[in-house]
Amino acid sequence: MKIDRMEGPSTAEIDVPALIDRLPISSFQIRVLLICAAVLFVDGFDTQAIGYVAPALAQEWKLARGALGPVFSAGLFGLMLGAIAFGTLADRVGRKRIIVIATAAFGLGTLATMLAQDATSLIVLRFLTGLGLGGAMPNAVALTAELAPHRRRATMVMAMFAGFSIGAALGGLVAAALIPAFGWRAVFLVGGLVPLLLTPLLAVSLPESIRYLALAGGRDRDVAAMLRQVDPTLQTADDVRFVVPEPRLSGLPVAHLFAERRAGTTLLLWVVFFMSLLDLYLLSNWLPTVLNDLGVSVSSAAAIGAMLQVGGVVGTFALGRIIDRFSFRALAVTYLFAAIAVAAIGLSGHAIALVTVAIFAAGFCIVGGQIAANALTATYYPTAIRATGMGWALGIGRIGSIVGPLIGGAMLASHVDVETLFFAAAVPALVAAATALLLARIV
Fold this sequence. Notes:
Elements: E1 2-3, E2 13-15, H1 16-22, H2 27-61, H3 69-93, H4 95-112, H5 119-147, H6 153-182, H7 185-205, H8 210-216, H9 220-230, E3 235-236, E4 241-243, H10 263-293, H11 298-305, H12 307-347, H13 352-380, H14 386-413, H15 418-442
Parallel strand pairs: 1-3, 2-4
Helix pairs in contact: 2-5, 2-6, 2-7, 2-10, 2-11, 3-4, 3-5, 3-14, 4-5, 4-7, 5-6, 5-14, 6-11, 6-12, 6-13, 8-9, 10-11, 10-13, 10-14, 10-15, 12-13, 12-15, 13-14
Protein backbone atom coordinates (compact mmCIF):
# COMPACT_ATOMS: atom_id res chain seq x y z
CA MET A 1 0.00 0.00 0.00
CA LYS A 2 1.46 3.34 -1.03
CA ILE A 3 0.37 6.61 0.56
CA ASP A 4 2.01 9.75 -0.80
CA ARG A 5 1.95 13.35 0.22
CA MET A 6 -1.24 15.25 -0.57
CA GLU A 7 -1.23 18.02 -3.16
CA GLY A 8 -0.76 21.53 -1.85
CA PRO A 9 1.35 23.01 0.92
CA SER A 10 -0.07 20.97 3.80
CA THR A 11 1.51 17.70 4.94
CA ALA A 12 -0.40 14.48 4.33
CA GLU A 13 -2.15 12.95 7.31
CA ILE A 14 -2.90 9.25 7.78
CA ASP A 15 -5.69 8.19 10.10
CA VAL A 16 -4.01 5.37 12.07
CA PRO A 17 -7.16 3.64 13.44
CA ALA A 18 -8.84 3.75 10.01
CA LEU A 19 -5.74 2.27 8.37
CA ILE A 20 -5.51 -0.55 10.92
CA ASP A 21 -9.22 -1.27 10.48
CA ARG A 22 -8.69 -1.75 6.71
CA LEU A 23 -5.75 -4.12 7.07
CA PRO A 24 -5.86 -7.85 7.86
CA ILE A 25 -4.53 -8.91 11.25
CA SER A 26 -0.77 -9.40 10.95
CA SER A 27 1.80 -11.61 12.64
CA PHE A 28 3.14 -8.45 14.35
CA GLN A 29 -0.22 -7.80 16.03
CA ILE A 30 -0.42 -11.44 17.11
CA ARG A 31 3.11 -11.25 18.51
CA VAL A 32 2.26 -8.18 20.59
CA LEU A 33 -0.91 -9.92 21.78
CA LEU A 34 1.14 -12.94 22.89
CA ILE A 35 3.71 -10.80 24.71
CA CYS A 36 0.94 -9.02 26.62
CA ALA A 37 -0.67 -12.40 27.28
CA ALA A 38 2.63 -13.55 28.80
CA VAL A 39 2.56 -10.56 31.15
CA LEU A 40 -0.97 -11.44 32.25
CA PHE A 41 0.00 -15.11 32.51
CA VAL A 42 2.52 -14.39 35.26
CA ASP A 43 0.16 -11.74 36.69
CA GLY A 44 -2.59 -14.36 37.01
CA PHE A 45 -0.23 -16.93 38.50
CA ASP A 46 1.04 -14.53 41.16
CA THR A 47 -2.38 -13.03 41.92
CA GLN A 48 -3.99 -16.39 42.57
CA ALA A 49 -1.03 -18.14 44.21
CA ILE A 50 -2.05 -17.05 47.71
CA GLY A 51 -5.45 -18.72 47.37
CA TYR A 52 -3.91 -22.05 46.38
CA VAL A 53 -1.36 -22.09 49.19
CA ALA A 54 -3.86 -20.89 51.80
CA PRO A 55 -4.84 -24.33 53.22
CA ALA A 56 -1.20 -25.44 53.60
CA LEU A 57 -0.16 -22.08 55.01
CA ALA A 58 -3.03 -22.08 57.52
CA GLN A 59 -2.08 -25.58 58.67
CA GLU A 60 1.59 -24.65 59.13
CA TRP A 61 0.82 -21.46 61.05
CA LYS A 62 -2.16 -23.00 62.87
CA LEU A 63 -4.56 -20.25 61.75
CA ALA A 64 -8.33 -20.38 62.28
CA ARG A 65 -10.79 -20.56 59.39
CA GLY A 66 -11.18 -17.15 57.80
CA ALA A 67 -7.99 -15.77 59.37
CA LEU A 68 -6.36 -15.29 55.97
CA GLY A 69 -9.14 -13.00 54.77
CA PRO A 70 -7.10 -9.84 55.59
CA VAL A 71 -4.12 -11.31 53.70
CA PHE A 72 -6.22 -11.85 50.58
CA SER A 73 -7.69 -8.38 50.85
CA ALA A 74 -4.31 -6.69 51.43
CA GLY A 75 -3.04 -8.01 48.11
CA LEU A 76 -6.22 -6.95 46.37
CA PHE A 77 -6.05 -3.49 47.97
CA GLY A 78 -2.60 -3.15 46.41
CA LEU A 79 -4.07 -4.30 43.09
CA MET A 80 -6.73 -1.59 43.36
CA LEU A 81 -4.24 1.21 44.02
CA GLY A 82 -1.84 -0.09 41.37
CA ALA A 83 -4.55 -0.23 38.70
CA ILE A 84 -5.76 3.30 39.42
CA ALA A 85 -2.34 4.93 39.81
CA PHE A 86 -0.47 3.15 37.01
CA GLY A 87 -3.43 3.24 34.64
CA THR A 88 -3.66 7.02 34.97
CA LEU A 89 0.12 7.44 34.77
CA ALA A 90 0.31 5.39 31.57
CA ASP A 91 -1.89 7.91 29.75
CA ARG A 92 0.92 10.40 30.48
CA VAL A 93 4.10 8.36 29.95
CA GLY A 94 3.02 5.43 27.77
CA ARG A 95 1.90 1.86 28.25
CA LYS A 96 5.18 0.01 27.67
CA ARG A 97 7.19 1.72 30.39
CA ILE A 98 4.56 0.99 33.02
CA ILE A 99 4.18 -2.66 31.96
CA VAL A 100 7.95 -3.25 32.29
CA ILE A 101 8.18 -1.54 35.70
CA ALA A 102 5.06 -3.25 37.05
CA THR A 103 6.21 -6.72 35.94
CA ALA A 104 9.58 -6.32 37.65
CA ALA A 105 7.85 -5.00 40.78
CA PHE A 106 5.41 -7.87 41.24
CA GLY A 107 8.17 -10.40 40.45
CA LEU A 108 10.28 -9.03 43.29
CA GLY A 109 7.27 -8.87 45.60
CA THR A 110 6.27 -12.47 44.91
CA LEU A 111 9.83 -13.66 45.51
CA ALA A 112 9.93 -11.73 48.80
CA THR A 113 6.70 -13.44 49.91
CA MET A 114 8.79 -16.55 50.57
CA LEU A 115 10.31 -14.68 53.54
CA ALA A 116 6.98 -14.16 55.36
CA GLN A 117 6.95 -15.64 58.85
CA ASP A 118 3.53 -14.60 60.09
CA ALA A 119 0.22 -13.13 58.93
CA THR A 120 1.36 -9.54 59.54
CA SER A 121 4.44 -9.75 57.31
CA LEU A 122 2.39 -11.60 54.71
CA ILE A 123 -0.18 -8.79 54.63
CA VAL A 124 2.56 -6.21 53.97
CA LEU A 125 4.25 -8.28 51.26
CA ARG A 126 0.99 -9.10 49.47
CA PHE A 127 0.02 -5.41 49.47
CA LEU A 128 3.33 -4.36 47.91
CA THR A 129 3.15 -7.17 45.35
CA GLY A 130 -0.40 -6.13 44.52
CA LEU A 131 0.75 -2.66 43.44
CA GLY A 132 2.74 -4.17 40.58
CA LEU A 133 0.10 -6.76 39.73
CA GLY A 134 -2.53 -4.03 39.46
CA GLY A 135 -0.35 -1.79 37.31
CA ALA A 136 0.39 -4.34 34.59
CA MET A 137 -3.16 -5.38 33.77
CA PRO A 138 -4.90 -2.19 32.49
CA ASN A 139 -1.91 -1.28 30.36
CA ALA A 140 -1.64 -4.69 28.72
CA VAL A 141 -5.35 -4.39 27.87
CA ALA A 142 -4.95 -0.85 26.52
CA LEU A 143 -1.88 -1.68 24.42
CA THR A 144 -3.55 -4.70 22.84
CA ALA A 145 -6.79 -2.83 22.16
CA GLU A 146 -4.97 0.08 20.53
CA LEU A 147 -3.24 -2.16 18.00
CA ALA A 148 -6.36 -4.21 17.14
CA PRO A 149 -8.85 -3.45 14.35
CA HIS A 150 -12.28 -2.47 15.62
CA ARG A 151 -13.98 -5.50 14.06
CA ARG A 152 -11.88 -7.91 16.17
CA ARG A 153 -10.96 -5.75 19.16
CA ALA A 154 -13.00 -7.62 21.77
CA THR A 155 -11.82 -10.98 20.44
CA MET A 156 -8.15 -9.95 20.53
CA VAL A 157 -8.32 -8.37 23.97
CA MET A 158 -10.14 -11.40 25.36
CA ALA A 159 -7.65 -13.79 23.75
CA MET A 160 -4.80 -11.78 25.27
CA PHE A 161 -6.50 -11.70 28.66
CA ALA A 162 -6.84 -15.49 28.59
CA GLY A 163 -3.20 -15.42 29.63
CA PHE A 164 -4.34 -14.31 33.07
CA SER A 165 -6.77 -17.20 33.43
CA ILE A 166 -4.23 -19.73 32.16
CA GLY A 167 -1.67 -18.43 34.64
CA ALA A 168 -4.17 -18.52 37.48
CA ALA A 169 -5.26 -22.06 36.57
CA LEU A 170 -1.67 -23.25 36.23
CA GLY A 171 -1.04 -21.82 39.69
CA GLY A 172 -3.41 -24.43 41.09
CA LEU A 173 -1.72 -27.27 39.22
CA VAL A 174 1.76 -26.05 40.20
CA ALA A 175 0.66 -25.69 43.82
CA ALA A 176 -0.78 -29.21 43.78
CA ALA A 177 2.58 -30.54 42.55
CA LEU A 178 4.97 -28.41 44.62
CA ILE A 179 3.32 -28.11 48.04
CA PRO A 180 3.45 -31.81 49.02
CA ALA A 181 7.12 -32.07 47.97
CA PHE A 182 8.61 -28.66 48.80
CA GLY A 183 6.08 -26.68 50.85
CA TRP A 184 4.06 -23.56 50.03
CA ARG A 185 7.08 -21.25 49.65
CA ALA A 186 8.13 -23.08 46.46
CA VAL A 187 5.03 -21.70 44.71
CA PHE A 188 6.21 -18.13 45.35
CA LEU A 189 9.74 -18.99 44.24
CA VAL A 190 8.41 -19.99 40.82
CA GLY A 191 5.99 -17.06 40.77
CA GLY A 192 8.78 -14.59 41.46
CA LEU A 193 11.46 -15.87 39.12
CA VAL A 194 9.33 -16.09 35.98
CA PRO A 195 8.29 -12.40 35.79
CA LEU A 196 11.84 -11.30 36.61
CA LEU A 197 13.11 -13.38 33.68
CA LEU A 198 10.35 -11.92 31.48
CA THR A 199 11.18 -8.27 32.27
CA PRO A 200 14.25 -7.93 29.97
CA LEU A 201 12.29 -9.50 27.11
CA LEU A 202 9.55 -6.90 27.59
CA ALA A 203 12.07 -4.07 27.58
CA VAL A 204 13.48 -5.25 24.24
CA SER A 205 10.50 -6.74 22.40
CA LEU A 206 7.36 -4.92 23.53
CA PRO A 207 6.45 -1.88 21.38
CA GLU A 208 4.72 1.23 22.63
CA SER A 209 1.03 1.65 21.81
CA ILE A 210 0.70 2.85 18.20
CA ARG A 211 -2.33 5.03 19.01
CA TYR A 212 -0.60 6.54 22.02
CA LEU A 213 2.39 7.52 19.86
CA ALA A 214 0.21 8.96 17.09
CA LEU A 215 -1.94 10.95 19.51
CA ALA A 216 1.09 12.29 21.41
CA GLY A 217 2.63 13.57 18.16
CA GLY A 218 6.26 13.99 17.17
CA ARG A 219 6.87 10.23 16.75
CA ASP A 220 5.82 9.81 13.11
CA ARG A 221 8.87 7.74 12.16
CA ASP A 222 8.19 5.31 15.01
CA VAL A 223 4.53 5.04 14.00
CA ALA A 224 5.50 4.46 10.34
CA ALA A 225 7.95 1.73 11.35
CA MET A 226 5.29 0.00 13.44
CA LEU A 227 2.69 0.25 10.67
CA ARG A 228 5.16 -1.32 8.25
CA GLN A 229 5.33 -4.29 10.61
CA VAL A 230 1.55 -4.53 10.34
CA ASP A 231 1.69 -4.10 6.53
CA PRO A 232 5.18 -4.59 5.01
CA THR A 233 3.94 -3.15 1.67
CA LEU A 234 3.07 0.21 3.21
CA GLN A 235 4.99 3.16 1.71
CA THR A 236 4.66 6.74 2.91
CA ALA A 237 6.25 10.09 2.18
CA ASP A 238 8.94 11.28 4.62
CA ASP A 239 6.85 14.21 5.84
CA VAL A 240 3.60 12.31 6.39
CA ARG A 241 1.86 12.82 9.73
CA PHE A 242 0.07 10.01 11.55
CA VAL A 243 -3.00 11.04 13.50
CA VAL A 244 -5.75 9.62 15.67
CA PRO A 245 -9.03 11.53 15.11
CA GLU A 246 -9.58 12.02 18.83
CA PRO A 247 -8.96 15.07 21.02
CA ARG A 248 -5.89 15.42 23.20
CA LEU A 249 -7.54 15.84 26.57
CA SER A 250 -5.98 18.15 29.14
CA GLY A 251 -6.48 18.38 32.87
CA LEU A 252 -7.22 15.58 35.32
CA PRO A 253 -7.67 12.36 33.29
CA VAL A 254 -10.26 10.86 35.65
CA ALA A 255 -12.50 13.91 35.17
CA HIS A 256 -12.85 13.01 31.49
CA LEU A 257 -14.40 9.67 32.44
CA PHE A 258 -17.48 11.72 33.38
CA ALA A 259 -17.34 14.30 30.58
CA GLU A 260 -19.17 14.27 27.23
CA ARG A 261 -22.05 12.15 28.54
CA ARG A 262 -19.75 9.35 29.73
CA ALA A 263 -20.78 9.60 33.42
CA GLY A 264 -23.67 7.12 33.33
CA THR A 265 -21.73 4.53 31.36
CA THR A 266 -18.67 4.92 33.57
CA LEU A 267 -20.69 4.37 36.76
CA LEU A 268 -22.50 1.33 35.33
CA LEU A 269 -19.18 -0.16 34.20
CA TRP A 270 -17.87 0.31 37.72
CA VAL A 271 -20.88 -1.61 39.11
CA VAL A 272 -20.24 -4.49 36.70
CA PHE A 273 -16.56 -4.64 37.63
CA PHE A 274 -17.30 -4.37 41.36
CA MET A 275 -19.84 -7.20 41.37
CA SER A 276 -17.93 -9.41 38.95
CA LEU A 277 -14.60 -9.19 40.78
CA LEU A 278 -16.31 -9.55 44.17
CA ASP A 279 -17.70 -12.88 42.99
CA LEU A 280 -14.53 -13.99 41.23
CA TYR A 281 -12.22 -13.40 44.18
CA LEU A 282 -14.64 -14.74 46.78
CA LEU A 283 -14.67 -17.98 44.83
CA SER A 284 -11.04 -18.14 43.75
CA ASN A 285 -9.65 -17.41 47.22
CA TRP A 286 -11.96 -19.64 49.25
CA LEU A 287 -12.80 -22.56 46.96
CA PRO A 288 -9.66 -24.57 47.91
CA THR A 289 -10.41 -24.05 51.61
CA VAL A 290 -14.10 -25.00 51.27
CA LEU A 291 -13.18 -28.09 49.26
CA ASN A 292 -10.60 -29.03 51.89
CA ASP A 293 -13.27 -28.68 54.58
CA LEU A 294 -15.44 -31.10 52.57
CA GLY A 295 -12.73 -33.74 52.95
CA VAL A 296 -10.71 -33.16 49.78
CA SER A 297 -6.92 -33.21 50.23
CA VAL A 298 -4.96 -29.94 50.01
CA SER A 299 -3.39 -30.82 46.64
CA SER A 300 -6.69 -32.07 45.16
CA ALA A 301 -8.52 -28.99 46.46
CA ALA A 302 -6.00 -26.76 44.65
CA ALA A 303 -6.41 -28.74 41.43
CA ILE A 304 -10.23 -28.73 41.56
CA GLY A 305 -10.27 -25.05 42.48
CA ALA A 306 -8.17 -24.37 39.40
CA MET A 307 -11.14 -25.49 37.29
CA LEU A 308 -12.59 -22.03 37.91
CA GLN A 309 -9.79 -20.56 35.82
CA VAL A 310 -9.77 -23.44 33.32
CA GLY A 311 -13.44 -22.70 32.69
CA GLY A 312 -12.49 -19.06 32.34
CA VAL A 313 -9.96 -19.84 29.61
CA VAL A 314 -12.53 -21.83 27.65
CA GLY A 315 -15.15 -19.12 28.19
CA THR A 316 -12.79 -16.41 27.02
CA PHE A 317 -12.15 -18.02 23.64
CA ALA A 318 -15.76 -19.16 23.24
CA LEU A 319 -17.23 -15.72 23.99
CA GLY A 320 -14.87 -13.47 22.01
CA ARG A 321 -16.69 -13.41 18.66
CA ILE A 322 -20.08 -13.30 20.43
CA ILE A 323 -19.03 -10.23 22.42
CA ASP A 324 -17.72 -8.54 19.25
CA ARG A 325 -21.16 -9.04 17.69
CA PHE A 326 -23.64 -8.60 20.56
CA SER A 327 -21.63 -6.48 23.03
CA PHE A 328 -23.30 -5.85 26.40
CA ARG A 329 -26.37 -7.96 25.58
CA ALA A 330 -24.16 -11.06 25.45
CA LEU A 331 -22.44 -9.94 28.65
CA ALA A 332 -25.78 -9.75 30.49
CA VAL A 333 -26.69 -13.31 29.46
CA THR A 334 -23.24 -14.54 30.47
CA TYR A 335 -23.59 -13.18 34.01
CA LEU A 336 -27.11 -14.63 34.32
CA PHE A 337 -25.72 -18.09 33.63
CA ALA A 338 -22.87 -17.33 36.05
CA ALA A 339 -25.37 -16.87 38.87
CA ILE A 340 -26.97 -20.23 38.08
CA ALA A 341 -23.57 -21.98 38.00
CA VAL A 342 -22.42 -20.48 41.31
CA ALA A 343 -25.63 -21.57 43.04
CA ALA A 344 -25.12 -25.05 41.56
CA ILE A 345 -21.78 -25.37 43.37
CA GLY A 346 -23.61 -25.18 46.69
CA LEU A 347 -26.29 -27.61 45.56
CA SER A 348 -23.74 -30.24 44.52
CA GLY A 349 -23.01 -31.22 48.11
CA HIS A 350 -20.19 -33.77 48.52
CA ALA A 351 -20.46 -35.03 44.94
CA ILE A 352 -16.98 -33.96 43.81
CA ALA A 353 -17.65 -34.64 40.12
CA LEU A 354 -20.71 -32.36 40.16
CA VAL A 355 -18.83 -29.72 42.15
CA THR A 356 -16.01 -29.78 39.59
CA VAL A 357 -18.44 -29.34 36.68
CA ALA A 358 -20.23 -26.48 38.47
CA ILE A 359 -16.92 -24.75 39.24
CA PHE A 360 -15.89 -25.07 35.59
CA ALA A 361 -19.23 -23.57 34.47
CA ALA A 362 -18.92 -20.73 37.00
CA GLY A 363 -15.44 -19.95 35.70
CA PHE A 364 -16.66 -20.07 32.08
CA CYS A 365 -19.24 -17.37 32.85
CA ILE A 366 -17.63 -15.25 35.59
CA VAL A 367 -14.05 -15.18 34.33
CA GLY A 368 -15.21 -15.09 30.71
CA GLY A 369 -17.67 -12.32 31.59
CA GLN A 370 -15.03 -10.27 33.42
CA ILE A 371 -12.63 -10.52 30.50
CA ALA A 372 -15.43 -9.52 28.13
CA ALA A 373 -16.12 -6.51 30.37
CA ASN A 374 -12.43 -5.57 30.11
CA ALA A 375 -12.59 -5.73 26.32
CA LEU A 376 -15.79 -3.69 26.08
CA THR A 377 -14.42 -1.05 28.46
CA ALA A 378 -11.20 -0.72 26.45
CA THR A 379 -13.29 -0.29 23.31
CA TYR A 380 -15.56 2.34 24.86
CA TYR A 381 -12.99 4.93 26.03
CA PRO A 382 -10.90 7.09 23.63
CA THR A 383 -7.11 6.69 23.44
CA ALA A 384 -6.28 9.67 25.65
CA ILE A 385 -8.08 8.16 28.64
CA ARG A 386 -8.20 4.46 27.73
CA ALA A 387 -5.65 3.34 30.35
CA THR A 388 -7.26 5.69 32.89
CA GLY A 389 -10.70 4.25 32.14
CA MET A 390 -9.39 0.70 32.39
CA GLY A 391 -7.40 1.47 35.52
CA TRP A 392 -10.33 3.05 37.35
CA ALA A 393 -12.77 0.32 36.31
CA LEU A 394 -10.36 -2.35 37.49
CA GLY A 395 -9.58 -0.28 40.59
CA ILE A 396 -13.25 0.00 41.56
CA GLY A 397 -13.58 -3.67 40.74
CA ARG A 398 -10.73 -4.37 43.12
CA ILE A 399 -12.79 -2.89 45.94
CA GLY A 400 -15.21 -5.69 45.18
CA SER A 401 -12.32 -8.16 45.10
CA ILE A 402 -11.33 -6.95 48.58
CA VAL A 403 -14.86 -7.20 49.92
CA GLY A 404 -15.44 -10.67 48.42
CA PRO A 405 -12.77 -12.55 50.38
CA LEU A 406 -13.75 -10.72 53.56
CA ILE A 407 -17.40 -11.73 53.10
CA GLY A 408 -16.32 -15.31 52.42
CA GLY A 409 -14.06 -15.35 55.46
CA ALA A 410 -16.77 -13.92 57.70
CA MET A 411 -19.32 -16.46 56.48
CA LEU A 412 -16.90 -19.35 56.98
CA ALA A 413 -15.95 -18.08 60.44
CA SER A 414 -19.68 -18.01 61.27
CA HIS A 415 -19.94 -21.65 60.12
CA VAL A 416 -22.44 -20.87 57.36
CA ASP A 417 -23.35 -24.02 55.45
CA VAL A 418 -21.99 -24.50 51.94
CA GLU A 419 -25.36 -24.15 50.22
CA THR A 420 -26.03 -20.75 51.82
CA LEU A 421 -22.49 -19.57 51.04
CA PHE A 422 -22.84 -20.20 47.31
CA PHE A 423 -26.41 -18.94 47.10
CA ALA A 424 -25.12 -15.67 48.54
CA ALA A 425 -22.25 -15.70 46.04
CA ALA A 426 -24.75 -15.94 43.17
CA VAL A 427 -26.31 -12.55 44.02
CA PRO A 428 -23.44 -10.33 42.72
CA ALA A 429 -23.55 -12.16 39.38
CA LEU A 430 -27.26 -11.36 39.11
CA VAL A 431 -26.57 -7.69 39.81
CA ALA A 432 -23.82 -7.68 37.15
CA ALA A 433 -26.28 -9.21 34.66
CA ALA A 434 -28.89 -6.52 35.32
CA THR A 435 -26.29 -3.75 35.03
CA ALA A 436 -24.90 -5.12 31.75
CA LEU A 437 -28.47 -5.12 30.40
CA LEU A 438 -28.74 -1.41 31.25
CA LEU A 439 -25.44 -0.76 29.48
CA ALA A 440 -26.76 -2.55 26.40
CA ARG A 441 -29.55 0.05 26.21
CA ILE A 442 -27.38 3.18 26.53
CA VAL A 443 -24.05 2.37 24.82
